[in-house]
Design brief:
The complex is a heterodimer of chains A (about 550) and B (about 425).
Chain A: H1 3-7, H2 9-12, H3 17-20, H4 31-34, H5 38-53, H6 61-67, H7 77-90, E1 93-97, H8 105-109, E2 113-117, H9 119-131, H10 143-161, H11 167-199, H12 206-242, H13 251-267, H14 277-298, H15 307-335, H16 339-352, H17 356-367, H18 379-387, E3 402-403, H19 406-411, H20 420-451, E4 457-458, H21 467-482, E5 490-494, E6 500-506, E7 512-517, E8 520-525, E9 527-533, H22 534-540
Antiparallel strand pairs in A: 1-2, 4-9, 5-6, 6-9, 7-8
Chain B: H1 3-24, E1 27-29, H2 35-43, H3 45-55, E2 59-62, E3 66-70, H4 95-110, E4 114-116, H5 117-127, H6 131-134, H7 145-161, E5 164-168, H8 171-175, E6 182-185, H9 187-191, H10 208-216, H11 219-222, H12 227-244, E7 248-249, H13 255-276, E8 279-283, E9 286-290, H14 305-319, E10 324-326, H15 327-341, H16 347-350, H17 354-368, E11 372-376, E12 383-387, E13 394-395, H18 415-421
Antiparallel strand pairs in B: 1-3, 2-3, 4-6, 5-6, 7-9, 8-9, 10-12, 11-12
Helix pairs in contact in B: 1-2, 4-5, 4-7, 12-13, 14-17, 15-17
The chains are: A alpha+beta (about 550), B alpha+beta (about 425).
Pfam families (chain B): DUF2398
InterPro entries (chain B): CHP02678
Pfam family, one (chain A): DUF2397
C-alpha cells in the first residue's frame, strides 16, 4: 500500500456526482419543481428560506433534517444529503467545506459540507414566494419610515375627527401612508439581502466587514429601540383610528371610503356621471386590505403576533450572530498573522545553523521552553553549612563538600533517597503503627471470639460484655435491625466487614433482656440470637 | 506566631511553589498534568509578574488557558538545552527535526481548529518546498518510516506542550502507515511558543550569532542608554543565569557583570532565595544556586541507577585529574569499573563496548551541570573532558571501602581526593 494514499484518504473519497455538476454554469434554479421528489426539494428550500429569516447563513445536513416539517421529513439523513447535493447541482444551493470540530479521523477526511442559498436559489424562492401567496410581506428595518408612518396616522386621526374631512387631504394622507409602508417593506428586503451578503464569510472582504459591523450593530440597536417606542405609538394611533365613531363604524372606515371613492373616480374618468359601483367596491376592498396589512404589522391578534414584534426579535437575534461572525473572523485573522512567517524563517535558520550545538542554542533562545537546572544539596550538608558557614572566597576544592551516600557510591542505589535521619524516624513510627494495628486486631479477634455464641441462645443469656465486644455487638445489631422487615420474626445479617453473622428471632412474650457493660446496662425485648464469628472459625478451622 | 504571620508564610510558600513551577516548566496549561501548577501561578500572577519583570526582564503572560513565562537565557552560548524527543532514549533533536518542528508550526498557525497528522504532513512537505529552504539542502517527502518518525517526534513534543490535543487515533499507527491521527489545535498555546520580543521574520541578519542576538534582544530597551538601564540589564542577565544555570563561573562573566556582581551579590542571591528557596553556594570560582528540595532541575547528580552511578564514578575519577583527559581514557576506566560494579548495573551496561555509550551519557550530564567541559584534542582529534571547579563539591571515596550503614568519620571525607591528587 502506498503511504501517500494511506495518509490522504480524501483523494479516494470522490465527491458525489451531483457536486461535480456544480462547476457547470448552467443553473436551473426551477428544475427541482418538476423533478421527482419535488415536494422534498421545496421543503428543503423552505428550510433555508426560514433559516435565512433568522439570519442563519449556513446549514448542515443535520440542521436541515431536523428543521424539515414532520410530514416531509425522510426516514434517514442520506436522503436529505442527496437532495441538498441535487439542489447544489441545480444552482439553488452552494456547498462549502464544513470546518467544525469532529471527533474521528474519518469525519475529518470525509467531505463534509455546509450549505447556503445561492443568489439564483434565493431569486427562485422569492419568485416562488410571490406565487405562493401564502407568504406575507417581509418586515422592514427603516426607522425613519416608522416615524413617518406615525406622523401620517396622526394626520389621519385629525381628519377622522372632523365632521366633514377633506376627501383630497384624506386620500393623500392614506396614499402617503401606503407609500411609506411599501418603502418600509422594500427597504426591509434590500436590507436583509445586504445583511446576508455581509454575514457571508466567503464573499466578504474581512476588513470591510469588520469596519461595517459596528455600524450594522449600532443600526440594529437603534432600530430595535425605535420599533419599541414608535411602534407603540403607531399601535395606539391605529387603535384610536379603529375606535367606533358616533355612527357605530370604525373612524378609519369613513376615510377609507373617501379614498376609495376618489380612486374609483380616477379609474373611470368621465365614463358616467355616477361613480361605478363595481370600481368603488374593488377600490374599497383594496384599501381595507391595505389597512388590515398595516394593523397586522403593528397590532397583535390572538392567533397572529404583530409583524413588528417578529421583526424586533429577528433584529435582536441578528446581533449575537454578527458578533459570532466577528469572533470567528478574528480567530482566523490571528492564525493568518506573521507568526507563520516567523516559523518559516526559523525553520530556515535551523537548517542554516552551522552545527547541532548552534541549533540547540537557537532552540533555547527562540522558544525559551527550557527548565531551570540546579545542583542539589542535601539537608545534612545544608545544616552543617548553617552552623559553620564557608567564606565566599574559598575555592570549591577547599570547601566542605556535599556528602554522598556510601551506599549510592558503592551500588548506584540509595538505601533511601533524601534525608537519612528522617527516614529512620519514619520506620520507628511505622513500627509503632504496626504495633497499634496488631493490638487492635488482637482485641477485635478476642471480642469476636467472646461474642460467638456457638449456637442459638437468648439475648438475656449473653451476660456481661467488655466495651470492645459490646461495640462490635451494637454494630451487628444495627446491621441486623437495618434489614429487619416489618412483620418478620427472624433475621439473618452479616456484619459490614463480612467477619460475623447474626441470626435473630423474636420470642413472643419473651420479656426484656439486659446486657451489662462496664459503662452501663443495655435493655431491649428479648430475642433468640446466634452469632457466628466467621473469620475466627475460618482461621482456626 | 500571629495569625497574620501564618497567612503571610503560607502565601510566601505558594508564591515559591508557583515560581518554581514556572522555572521548571515555563508554559503551563489549565488542564492535564500542569493544572495544579497553573492554578497556583494564576493566583499569584501579579506578584510573580512583578518579580520577574523587575529582576529578569522576563514577561509573565497568564490568561484563562495558559500561563507562560517568556524566558530568555542569560547566556545564549549554552548548548546543553536541546529539544528532546518525549519517548524512548529522549535523544536531542536533529537538524531535520528542528526544521520540521518549525514547519509544522507554520502550518498549524494557518490551519483550522483541527488537523489530521496526514494533512499536516502533506502541508509540511509543501512548506518545505520554499526555495530558500530548499537552498539549504534539506528536503522532506515524509513517505518513509524514518521521516515519519521525525514528524511523530515533533508532534509528540507539541502534544507535550499542549499545542495539540489528540482527539482520535494514535501516532504509532501512523508510523506503520496503518492509520491517521486527529488533533485539536490549541491556538493560545501556539501563540505562546515563541519567547522573544522580536519575530524572526523581522530579523535581516545572516550570521548565526547575530540572528541569535537579535532574537534575545528587547528593542524597547536596547535603543536607550542610561546608567540605570545598564545596571538593570546587568541585573537581569545575572539573575537570569543564577535562576537557570547550575553554576555561574566568574570567568564566564564580562567585566561589567563582575563589577556589578561584586557589589550586588548579596541582594541578588537573597532575592532569588526568597522567591525560589534556592540557596547560594558562593565560592572563589563562581556561584551555584543549589536546591535543597532537589526538584528544580532536569539533570540530577547524584542519581540512582546505572547511568547515575557511572556518572558518579566518572565524576570521582575526573576530580582526581588535571587538565584535559582523553575520553578514551575515561572509557578504559569505565571498562575496569564494569568488573567491580557489574552486578549493580543494567544488562546492556555490562555488554562489551557499552562503555562508549555510558561515558558519553555521563559526560552529557556532567557538562549539563557545568561540572565538566568537553572539547577536542587539537593534536589527536580525539574528544576530551576537563573537570570544572564545582566538580570538587562532591566528596566520594573513603566510604566506598566501608560496609553499608556504617558512617564515614567526618574528618576523612576529603582525604581521598587529596590522595588522588598527590
Amino acid at each position: 500500500m502506498s503511504p501517500s494514499s494511506e495518509r490522504a484518504p480524501s483523494v479516494e473519497a470522490s465527491p458525489p456526482s451531483a457536486l461535480k455538476a456544480e462547476a457547470s454554469s448552467h443553473h436551473q434554479p426551477f428544475a427541482h419543481l418538476n423533478a421527482p421528489n419535488g415536494e422534498l426539494y421545496r421543503a428543503v428550500m423552505g428550510v433555508f428560506v426560514r433559516a435565512k429569516e433568522r439570519f442563519t447563513v449556513h446549514l448542515r445536513p443535520e440542521d436541515v433534517f431536523t428543521a424539515l416539517p414532520a410530514e416531509r421529513r425522510p426516514t434517514d439523513i442520506d436522503t436529505v444529503v442527496k437532495a441538498l447535493d441535487a439542489l447544489a447541482a441545480w444552482g439553488n444551493l452552494r456547498p462549502d467545506p464544513d470546518t467544525t470540530r469532529v471527533t474521528a479521523v474519518e469525519d475529518f477526511y470525509r467531505r463534509r459540507f455546509i450549505y447556503q442559498l445561492t443568489r439564483a436559489g434565493e431569486a427562485a424562492e422569492e419568485a416562488l414566494a410571490a406565487y405562493d401567496a401564502a407568504l406575507g410581506r417581509q418586515g422592514s428595518l427603516q426607522a425613519v419610515a416608522l416615524a413617518d408612518i406615525a406622523a401620517r396616522l396622526r394626520e389621519l386621526l385629525a381628519h377622522a375627527g372632523k365632521a366633514a374631512p377633506d376627501p383630497a387631504m384624506a386620500h393623500l394622507a392614506l396614499r402617503d401612508l401606503v407609500g411609506r409602508f411599501t418603502d418600509l417593506a422594500d427597504n426591509a428586503r434590500a436590507f436583509m439581502g445586504s445583511l446576508q451578503r455581509t454575514i457571508d464569510l466567503h464573499d466578504a472582504d474581512v476588513d470591510a466587514f469588520l469596519a461595517y459591523k459596528d455600524r450594522l450593530i449600532d443600526y440594529l440597536e437603534r432600530f430595535i429601540a425605535d420599533l419599541i417606542t414608535t411602534g407603540a405609538e403607531i399601535a395606539r394611533l391605529l387603535a384610536d383610528l379603529e375606535r367606533p365613531d358616533p355612527a357605530g363604524e370604525p373612524a378609519v372606515e369613513r376615510l377609507l371610503r373617501l379614498a376609495a371613492e376618489r380612486d374609483a373616480a380616477d379609474a373611470a374618468p368621465g365614463a358616467t356621471e355616477e361613480p361605478d359601483g363595481a370600481a368603488l367596491a374593488t377600490a374599497l376592498g383594496g384599501w381595507r386590505d391595505r389597512w388590515a396589512g398595516l394593523r397586522g404589522w403593528f397590532l397583535s391578534s390572538a392567533d397572529h403576533p404583530a409583524q413588528a414584534k417578529l421583526l424586533r426579535s429577528a433584529a435582536r437575534s441578528a446581533i449575537p450572530q454578527l458578533l459570532t461572525v466577528v469572533s470567528t473572523l478574528n480567530e482566523r485573522r490571528a492564525g493568518r498573522s506573521d507568526r507563520s512567517a516567523d516559523f518559516r524563517v526559523l525553520a530556515r535558520w535551523f537548517a542554516e545553523a552551522p552545527d547541532d550545538a548552534a541549533r540547540h542554542r537557537l532552540w533555547r533562545t527562540a522558544f525559551g521552553l527550557y527548565p531551570a537546572r540546579h545542583l542539589t544539596m542535601n539537608a545534612d550538608t545544608l545544616d552543617a553549612r548553617e552552623r559553620d558557614p564557608v567564606p565566599a572566597d574559598t575555592p570549591w576544592a577547599e570547601a566542605d563538600p556535599v556528602r554522598i551516600s556510601p551506599q549510592l557510591r558503592r551500588t548506584g542505589h540509595y538505601e533511601r533517597r533524601g534525608k537519612p535521619r528522617r527516614v529512620a524516624d519514619r520506620s520507628e513510627e511505622r513500627r509503632y503503627l504496626a504495633e497499634v494495628a496488631r493490638k487492635q486486631a488482637e482485641e477485635i479477634a478476642a471480642a469476636r471470639a467472646r461474642l460467638d455464641t456457638g449456637g442459638p441462645v437468648r439475648l438475656s443469656d449473653l451476660g456481661e460484655l467488655d466495651p470492645s465486644a459490646f461495640g462490635l455487638f451494637l454494630q451487628l445489631l444495627s446491621d441486623a435491625l437495618g434489614s429487619w422487615r416489618p412483620g418478620g420474626t427472624e433475621i439473618v445479617a452479616t456484619g459490614n466487614d463480612g467477619a460475623m453473622e447474626i441470626r435473630m428471632r423474636v420470642i413472643p412474650g419473651g420479656g426484656a433482656a439486659e446486657i451489662h457493660t462496664p459503662d452501663g446496662v443495655f435493655r431491649g425485648p428479648d430475642h433468640t440470637v446466634e452469632i457466628v464469628d466467621l473469620a475466627g472459625r475460618e482461621a482456626t478451622g | 506566631m500571629t495569625l497574620r504571620d501564618h497567612t503571610r508564610e503560607q502565601r510566601d510558600a505558594e508564591i515559591r511553589r508557583a515560581a518554581r513551577a514556572l522555572l521548571r516548566e515555563p508554559l503551563l496549561r489549565n488542564q492535564g498534568r500542569t493544572v495544579d501548577d497553573f492554578r497556583l501561578v494564576r493566583q499569584q500572577a501579579p506578584e510573580l509578574r512583578e518579580w520577574f519583570d523587575r529582576n529578569t526582564g522576563w514577561s509573565l503572560h497568564v490568561d484563562a488557558e495558559t500561563a507562560r513565562l517568556r524566558k530568555l537565557p542569560g547566556d545564549s552560548a549554552d548548548p546543553t538545552h536541546p529539544a528532546r524527543e518525549t519517548t524512548g532514549a529522549r535523544l536531542p533533536f536533529t537538524r531535520r527535526r528542528y526544521v520540521l518542528f518549525c514547519l509544522a508550526l507554520a502550518v498549524l498557525e494557518r490551519s483550522d481548529t483541527q488537523i489530521a497528522l496526514g494533512r499536516l504532513a502533506e502541508q509540511v512537505v509543501l512548506e518545505a518546498a520554499e526555495p530558500r529552504l530548499v537552498a539549504t539542502g534539506i528536503a522532506f517527502t515524509l513517505d518513509n518510516r524514518e521521516e515519519r518518525s521525525d514528524l511523530v517526534a515533533v508532534v509528540r513534543l507539541l502534544l507535550g506542550y499542549g499545542a495539540l490535543t489528540r482527539v482520535a487515533g494514535d501516532e504509532d499507527a501512523y508510523l506503520k502507515s496503518a492509520g491517521d491521527v486527529l488533533y485539536d489545535v490549541e491556538r493560545r498555546v501556539l501563540a505562546g511558543l515563541l519567547t522573544g520580543r522580536v519575530g524572526p521574520s523581522m530579523v535581516d541578519a545572516a550570521p548565526f550569532e547575530e540572528r541569535l542576538a537579535a532574537l534575545a534582544a528587547d528593542p524597547a530597551l536596547d535603543g536607550m542608554d542610561s546608567d540605570d538601564l545598564r545596571n538593570r540589564k546587568l541585573r537581569h542577565a545575572l539573575t537570569r543565569r543564577l535562576l537557570d544555570e547550575p553554576v555561574v563561573y566568574r570567568d564566564s562573566l564580562t567585566e561589567a557583570e563582575t563589577a556589578y556582581l561584586s557589589s550586588q551579590r548579596g541582594a541578588i542571591t537573597r532575592r532569588i532565595t526568597e522567591l525560589t528557596g534556592l540557596v547560594a553556594e558562593v565560592r572563589a570560582e563562581g556561584i551555584a544556586m543549589v536546591d535543597p528540595d532537589d526538584d528544580l532541575t532536569d539533570v540530577r547528580m547524584p542519581e540512582q541507577g546505572t547511568h547515575g552511578h557511572v556518572t558518579l564514578l566518572l565524576a570521582e575519577y575526573l576530580a582526581g585529574t588535571e587538565g584535559e583527559v582523553p575520553v578514551a581514557r575515561l572509557e578504559a576506566h569505565v571498562r575496569e569499573l564494569t568488573a567491580e560494579h557489574a552486578r549493580h548495573w543494567s544488562k546492556t551496561a555490562r555488554e562489551p563496548g557499552a562503555e562508549t555509550d555510558l561515558v558519553a551519557r555521563a559526560l552529557v550530564k556532567l557538562e549539563a551541570l557545568s561540572l565538566v567541559r568537553t572539547g577536542v584534542d587539537a593534536a589527536t582529534g580525539g574528544r576530551t573532558a576537563e573537570r570544572l571547579p564545582a566538580l570538587a563539591r562532591y566528596a566520594v571515596g573513603e566510604a566506598i571501602v566501608r560496609e553499608p550503614g556504617e558512617r564515614a568519620p567526618k574528618t576523612s571525607r576529603r582525604t581521598p581526593r587529596r590522595k588522588a591528587r598527590t
